[in-house]
Design goal:
The chain is α/β, with parallel strands linked by helices. It contains 6 helices and 8 strands, in the order E-E-E-H-E-H-H-E-H-E-E-H-E-H. It has one domain: Alpha/Beta hydrolase fold, catalytic domain (Rossmann fold). Strands 1-2-4-3-5-6-7-8 form an 8-stranded mixed beta sheet, sandwiched between helices. Keywords: Hydrolase.
């Protein structure tokens, strides 16, 4: 359904991504940020789903073509650890937002795992954004303080998550509330990465569909 494209970062350098366009020409945009595996078929499929739901969706390729197999967590961790999160957010992800906003459309940001953390950083750093939806990712506070979040956020977390733990989620929710920020937060009795239907061991269809419905409604409300 979608296609691989190149687009410009704010610094003028070219970068790549996967773009899926909605049927209508003046659709709002959603930037979709990958998990620590890279720009996988699952992430492309989510872009296609956003397009079917009425959004132009662009997933920047933060690993420059590298896609890690799902069983190789060591390689995924090495890729994520070597990623410059600030450069990825303020250049690749912002470039994707600028690409989608060029027709005057409102643009949202969403991401999963690594991409969830990038979504929160982007909510503090990318002026083109109107709303964000976070899936089971929280950056360290030195990367993005809740007090600096500039857009309404919706967030989805798993109760059986040993990376984005319930305690970390509670602390994030409290910090957002204390800062007076707009946050809709949902918890699911599921495991980390429950939206990824390619990972049978953790995928939870009921939780994933509930979260998807909430996310698309949130974007329709804020992006039009």
């Amino acid at each position: 359904m979608g296609t691989h494209i190149t687009f410009k970062r704010p610094d003028g350098n070219e970068t790549a991504g996967y773009l899926a366009n909605a049927a209508r020409g003046n659709a709002p945009g959603v930037v979709v940020v990958q998990e620590w595996w890279g720009l996988s078929e699952n992430i492309k499929g989510l872009c296609d789903r956003f397009a079917a739901a009425g959004f132009d969706a662009l997933a920047p390729d933060l690993y420059k073509g590298v896609v890690v197999p799902y069983h190789d967590t060591d390689a995924a961790n090495a890729q994520m650890t070597s990623l410059d999160f600030m450069d990825a957010t303020t250049q690749n992800v912002r470039g994707a937002a600028q690409y989608l906003v060029r027709n005057g459309a409102k643009v949202g940001l969403t991401g999963f795992c690594l991409g969830g953390a990038v979504t929160i950083i982007g909510a503090t750093k990318i002026p083109e954004l109107t709303a964000g939806v976070v899936f089971y990712g929280i950056p360290p506070e030195q990367a993005a303080k809740p007090a600096d979040v500039k857009i309404p956020l919706q967030a989805h977390f798993a109760n059986k998550d040993d990376w984005c733990t319930p305690a970390a989620v509670d602390a994030f929710e409290k910090a957002m509330k204390d800062a007076g920020k707009s946050l809709e937060l949902f918890r699911y009795d599921a495991e980390h990465a429950f939206v990824n239907e390619q990972r049978v061991a953790v995928h939870d269809r009921q939780a994933a569909e509930l979260a998807w419905g909430r996310a698309t409604e949130f974007f329709k409300k804020h992006l039009g």
